[in-house]
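FIELD: query
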Amino acid sequence: MSDMRTPLRRVRGMGSAHGGTDHFWQQRLTAISNFILITIFVFVIISLIGEGYEGMRATFGNPIVGVAAALVIVSACVHMRLGMQTIIEDYVHGPMKWPLSICNIFFACLIAGLGLYAIVKMSFGV
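FIELD: result
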């Protein structure tokens, strides 16, 4: 049975991987959130110039600063994973494509976990 749809209709909203524009928008939204969150984070770091260790722990002990730092880590790691996924999908061919995709996911999760652990440790003084 032949498909009577036009080529445009067959792919509307879906790319060759049937993911559509979701990946594109996720990458753009994480880029915007990174810009905003990292700008805030830079101002926090600038305000810590000249402070000692206790001043830094007190700053990160503030729930707003701690949550903002955690959001920076999560947003940056999601953005990093999406960017590397695009590179792997576009430039890696053959049997290494899937192992590299899996390693990409695990690496992003590892970095996010270590960063969040550091924030929790500074915030709660554990």
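FIELD: remark
The radius of gyration is 20 Å.
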